[in-house]
Structure to design on (389 residues):
């Protein structure tokens, strides 16, 4: 009898906050600026520069923690996460490990299998790293430090999800809350919301966790779904062949619809965390928390529960059901504007796809021509040397 496997999934979601300035300096966070124009000695890690905490970042973190039913740490602090990478100019990232601002929360999601509660292990504030741009044609990597120091909230879930459908439902719920609070626009294609998928497989009924891998470079719900399905199949194949799953970080390639290993997966001890000496611990006042709580908007689900519409007395139950069904059918039919918008979006998508393909072929043609030209030059050089001899 073939073994039955189940997928165990936990998420690390990074939400880029919609503040005007970065978390520890006054540089702008505006997206799309020219490379390395929104930088200063603080966010580029120059010696002697000192960070100053942006108060708005703490306010946004508290608002999200309250909306996600988290416990708030009234006393919290920042820690240094030490690692060496070109997009990290300080050679450490200011984050929170020992005393994060929020912990032990939960969100309720709804799928075709019903409702389910996803536990949140913690939420913490941290700074973003720069962005590496890999140029395959020139065989080099460029770094843009505009994103370095942009404020993030990382939401770490417990491994409570079992399917890609539950993952998407959780991310949509989290995105809806962030947008409703006004703390982030959560655009996956621009990187203001990024999800790292931690996935392992185990036999159905087993309590022991399998070896997990972390999937990165997931910039759409479609990519997340494909990455989960592909990694699940890859791990099951390895186990069926009697091989071990390696704990590693893998990069998802959306064009090839496959992943490849980036580096071995580190644990907290590998980053050598210690309290940041340049930032004092925070003591969050009760009055400030109450002010933030009083400004929290009423969420859509709460509105639905409050606004229960009762049928009029002169309508029978049957006629009311017919009327409701007719209204539902009418609402499901798209309007002329919606149909026109859908057609335009399809045309724009087709044009962009065509332009991308043409650009790819153009770059390939240029690379072939450069290669042929270099071969001609080498041949000419060799011929001149022979003539001289």
């Amino acid at each position: 009898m073939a073994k039955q496997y189940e997928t165990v999934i936990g998420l690390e979601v990074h939400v880029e906050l919609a503040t005007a300035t970065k978390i520890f300096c006054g540089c702008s966070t505006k997206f799309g600026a020219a490379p390395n124009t929104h930088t200063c000695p603080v966010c580029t890690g120059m010696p002697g520069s000192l960070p100053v905490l942006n108060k708005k970042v703490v306010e946004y973190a508290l608002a999200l923690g309250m909306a996600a039913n988290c416990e708030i740490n009234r006393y919290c602090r920042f820690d240094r996460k030490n690692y060496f990478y070109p997009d990290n100019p300080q050679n450490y990232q200011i984050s929170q490990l020992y005393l994060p601002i929020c912990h032990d929360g939960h969100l309720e999601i709804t799928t075709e299998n019903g409702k389910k509660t996803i536990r949140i292990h913690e939420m913490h504030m941290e700074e973003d790293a720069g962005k590496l741009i890999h140029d395959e044609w020139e065989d080099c990597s460029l770094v843009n430090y505009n994103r370095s120091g942009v404020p993030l909230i990382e939401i770490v879930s417990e491994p409570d999800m079992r399917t890609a459908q539950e993952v998407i439902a959780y991310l949509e719920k989290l995105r809806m809350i962030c947008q409703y609070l006004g703390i982030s626009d959560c655009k996956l294609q621009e990187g203001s919301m990024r999800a790292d998928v931690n996935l392992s497989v185990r036999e159905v009924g087993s309590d022991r966790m399998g070896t997990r891998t972390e999937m990165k470079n997931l910039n759409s719900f479609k990519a997340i779904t494909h990455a989960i399905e592909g990694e699940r199949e890859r791990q099951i194949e390895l186990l069926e062949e009697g091989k071990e799953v390696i704990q590693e970080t893998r990069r998802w390639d959306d064009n090839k619809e496959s992943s490849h290993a980036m580096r071995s997966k580190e644990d907290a001890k590998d980053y050598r965390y210690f309290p940041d000496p340049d930032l004092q611990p925070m003591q969050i006042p009760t009055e400030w928390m109450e002010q933030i709580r009083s400004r929290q908007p009423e969420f859509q689900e709460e509105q639905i529960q409050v606004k229960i519409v009762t049928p009029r007395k002169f309508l029978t139950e049957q006629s009311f059901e017919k009327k409701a069904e007719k209204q539902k059918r009418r609402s499901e039919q798209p309007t002329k504007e919606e149909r026109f918008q859908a057609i335009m979006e399809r045309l724009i998508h087709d044009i962009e796809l065509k332009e991308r393909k043409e650009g790819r072929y153009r770059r390939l043609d240029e690379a072939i021509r450069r290669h042929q030209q270099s071969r001609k030059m080498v041949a000419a050089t060799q011929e001149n040397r022979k003539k001289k001899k």
